[in-house]
Each structure stands twice: as C-alpha cells, then as structure tokens.
Amino acid sequence: xxxxxxxxxxxxxxxxxxxxxxxxxxxxxxxxxxxxxxxxxxxxxxxxxxxxxxxxxxxxxxxxxxxxxxxxxxxxxxxxxxxxxxxxxxxxxxxxxxxxxxxxxxxxxxxxxxxxxxxxxxxxxxxxxxxxxxxxxxxxxxxxxxxxxxxxxxxxxxxxxxxxxxxxxxxxxxxxxxxxxxxxxxxxxxxxxxxxxxxxxxxxxxxxxxxxxxxxxxxxxxxxxxxxxxxxxxxxxxxxxxxxxxxxxxxxxxxxxxxxxxxxxxxxxxxxxxxxxxxxxxxxxxxxxxxxxxxxxxxxxxxxxxxxxxxxxxxxxxxxxxxxxxxxxxxxxxxxxxxxxxxxxxxxxxxxxxxxxxxxxxxxxxxxxxxxxxxxxxxxx
Length: 381
Known about the structure:
Layout: E1 2-6, H1 16-30, E2 34-42, E3 48-52, E4 55-61, H2 63-72, H3 75-83, E5 88-92, H4 99-110, E6 114-119, H5 133-151, E7 155-158, E8 164-165, E9 168-172, E10 194-199, H6 208-220, H7 223-226, E11 229-234, H8 239-243, H9 251-258, E12 264-268, H10 272-279, E13 284-286, H11 302-309, E14 314-316, E15 329-331, H12 341-348, H13 354-359, H14 366-378
Parallel strand pairs: 1-2, 1-5, 5-6, 6-7, 7-9, 10-11, 10-13, 11-12, 13-14, 14-15
Antiparallel strand pairs: 2-3, 3-4, 8-9
Helix pairs in contact: 1-14, 3-4, 6-9
C-alpha cells in the first residue's frame, strides 16, 4: 500500500512527538508498506517549505506571510498524492481544522484517496485552558470546522475508547513502543535511595505538582532518614508550571515550602544516551497524575508504554485498559491529593523483574498497532 504520512510541522530530535511519529512510520514500513512523509519545516536559506521526504513540494518564503500561506495553501499535497498514486493519507491532527484543510481532503476523497486523521488526545478542549491565550484562537477555529473536516475522513484514529469522534467512526488502537530504541534500564544501586523519573513536555494534566507535594510530605515527616527519595523531571518545564496557574499549583512554591529544592532534579530535554543515563539512575516511573484536570478519564498514553518497555514499574491516575491491574502499576486517585511516597516505596518491594515487565508489552509494538490501522482501512469500501 502506498501511504503519505502527513504532519503539519517538522521533526525535532529531542521531541517525544517526533519520536512517536517516526516510530509509527517505521511500523508501517515494517509491515511492507511504501510510506512517504510530508512535513513543514525551514530550509537552510531560511525559507519555510512543505516537504515530502527530502523533496520540496512548495516554498512559502520567509516571515509571517510564509506562515499564513502554509495554513491556506495545501494544494501541493493533493497534487503530489494524485501524481504519485497515493492510496492512503494518514494525517496527524494539529487541532487546525479550517476551510483550506477541508478543501484538501475533499479533493483527496474525490480522487479515491482514503483519508485517516489521528487525534492524539481526545477530548482536548480543556487542555487549552492552561496554554497561552493565542492558542485559544486556534481552538476557536478548530471548533468551527472540525466536524466538517471529520466528514471527509474515512475514519479517525484514536487512543481512546470512543466509537465516534466529531460524528466520524473511529479506529481504536493503543499508543505503541519501538523496542529498538528503548533499552531495558540498568540495575539500580538501592543504597543510593529511590529515584523516580517523570518524562514529559510538562503541562498541568501531568500533575507532577502532586508528586512534588507528596515528596515534601514524606520529608516533612522524617521519611528521608529511612530512605532518600528523589524526583527527576526530564523535559521542558515552562514558567507557569514552576510558579502555578489557575489549574495547578506551581512546583517552586511547593519545593520552597518543604525545603526540597535539592530533591527535585530538572534535566531539561534529553534524548539518546543522555536520556538512557537518567533512566539508569531510576527505578520507578511517574506517568500522568491529573488527566482529570483536562476532563479525561480514559487514555492510553505513550509514556506508560515507554516506562513498561524499559522495565520500570510506574504510577498514573487515569484509566488505561492495557495496564490497569498489572502487578507493576500503582494507581493514584484521580484527585488533587499529594502522592504518598511511602506507598511507592512499599510497592517497589514486590514488583516483577524488569525483563518480565518489558515482555508484557510486546504486543504494543508500533508494527502491530499500525497494522491494526491498515487492517481497518482494508475494510473500508
């Protein structure tokens, strides 16, 4: 099958989103499909361009006008698909529904191209409350046109249990993992204390403030004399998360209140061996602890799967059918209470071996998950 994987931005080496998309593309190719990648990025001369693989299919120029042009001019994508006999377009939603995008998919449908749109998180409206106001304007436009855009899709790919989204039928899959790039974590020195790791582009729905609050309570009541505990945060942490918002308390005030500034380590964005090195210090993963803040109760997050692939036990608060009830998963209540660090310490005494945790998610490889998408596409008339 000849497939165009469409994203509305470029790829970054340290971005978890980029890693995920590249793994999905790899999974499709592992199943024997011919996959081409359409992206939007900057050339060496500063021009913003739309690419398919390494070929420029449209040069939008420089500056603000280039940004406007690329949001209004998608004809080059349709031209490419028709010229190259693309059979399926797999588009990753950027919450950017518009009349121009509708026109693109209408034309693709008229030329018998099957169209899929992946919505990474659903529902997503509440997530915008924690973002700068400029993002709200984008959501306003998306709300106006997303149902009409969905009507030109053959299906919507979702990591939720919803059977329809915006009036369109769904293909339900799980987030996957790429076993080739996620090594089993190394043996941890228990005498060095308990090291927790949370990897994310941090937002209020990750609820890391609950973990920091719980760490503060642990040290306040003398827990550090029993076993030192540290929390490593890997990923971008923006000023609102450090200082607090209407949705969530800030990390910094909590750390100062309890005097645990040296117990929370911020590593910034890491990838490759640098990321592996931090994982090798840690023996417990921190997933999302506050999805309820964005109105989500059921979700299959990528991070849970990556922790399991690395052989780490972990904690989260949402519902995830792939992991609920697993012996290496500690469920947190979906509320605003601080996380009890002592519960984590006791839980870690009885978790399975790392290799057994990794083996339990072999069915969640991207190769298998993307084949589920293709199997569903083949059933579409």
